[in-house]
Amino acid sequence: MNRTVFFVSESTGITAETLGHSLLSQFDTVDFEQVYMPYINTEMRAKALTQRMQEAAERDGVRPIVFATMLNDEIRDILKTGNCFYMELFEGFVEPLSAELGVSPSRESGRSHAITRPNFYTKRIEAINFAMANDDGVRPDNLSRADVVLLGVSRSGKTPICLYLAMHYGLRAANYPITEEDFEHGDVPKQVWDCRDKLFALIIDPQRLQLIREERRPGSPYASLSKCQQDLRQAQQIFRRLQVPVINTTSQSIEEVSAQIIKSFKENQERPLALRVR
Predict the structure, then answer these.
(1) Where do the annotations place ADP binding (predicted)?
(2) How does residue 275 score in pLDDT terms, banded at 50, 70 and 90?
(3) Residue 158 marked as a ligand binder
(4) Banded pLDDT at 116 (limits 50, 70, 90)
(5) Is 186 annotated as a binding residue?
(6) Band of residue 1 on the pLDDT scale cut at 50, 70, 90
């Protein structure tokens, strides 16, 4: 089955796209052609979009699905006249929440992704810069300034997870790749030991690691299965010595791994200092 899906909003459309993707993920037997339509904030644009809906319906032989976050009643009414299955993602939540709070909603578009908290926005930007400047252990002396430090073998997912933690949570995330020198010594530098209370180790299945490394350096000893197995085996010995949390990234998304780190990070922050890992 093929269906066209429109993600529509008066503003960025990030909320419509995120919630829509979550719902569509439950229907993996359907092929969805996804169309991103932000800033549908005039009647003219809304009418043009209904024409695109009609074209999609005629092409597919079935009406398209529309995930929308529209606070403007006039524009929403125009879209509902289109040949589509329309789902308003705010409609079922804003009014009940307003009744519970006893406060009328602002009905201003773009509020969820606007810079409503300048201090936190600045913190996110600084965290992204920190993650980029402290990638791959280039500044071990800076690990003490990090909120979270990720440890793992090459290509285990450290960099994208650090950037995600910075972008979405404003955390200063650094990472340290276990090097050949570390394997020879069977240990990591003192700077890594000194931040054990904020250290998370990443592990990955050797077969998965081989595929990732093969894309980077095809046919190299670095990408061989035996090298991947050896690196991971030695890394796990270091993790056990450090006694830090270990997260398997093999079949988990960046979001899932980050959620585990955030949960553990918050729990650690709530513990008395004397009970944290030293």
Answers:
(1) 152-159
(2) very low
(3) yes
(4) low
(5) no
(6) confident
d(CA 54, CA 158): 45
Q: Which of 95, 85, 91, 81 is nearest to 32 (CA)?
A: 85
Please tell me the predicted confidence (pLDDT) of residue 91. Answer: 77
157 is in an annotated binding site: yes
Residue 154 assigned as binding residue: yes
Q: Is 80 exposed, middle or buried (0-12, 13-18, 19+ CB in 10 A)?
A: middle
| H/E stretch holding 234 | helix 225-242
2-113 maps to which CATH number?
Answer: 3.40.50
Which pLDDT score, from 0 to 100, does residue 278 have?
Answer: 40
Q: Would you mind telling me the total number of residues written for the chain in this entry?
A: 278
**What mean pLDDT comes out for the span 147-161?**
96
Domains 2-113 and 118-275 alike in fold: yes
Map out the domains of the chain as residue ranges. 2-113, 118-275
- Residue 156 annotated as part of some ligand binding site: yes
**Three-state secondary-structure class, residue 87:** strand
Amino acid at position 38, single letter:
P
Say whether 278 counts as a known binding-site residue: no
Are the C-beta atoms of 5 and 33 separated by less than 8 Å? yes
**In this structure, are residues 9 and 109 in contact, taking their beta carbons and an 8 Å threshold?**
yes
Return the pLDDT at 113: 57
Q: Is 152 annotated as a binding residue?
A: yes
- Among candidates 169, 178, 170, which has minimal Cα distance to 203? 178
- Give mean pLDDT, residues 198-204: 96
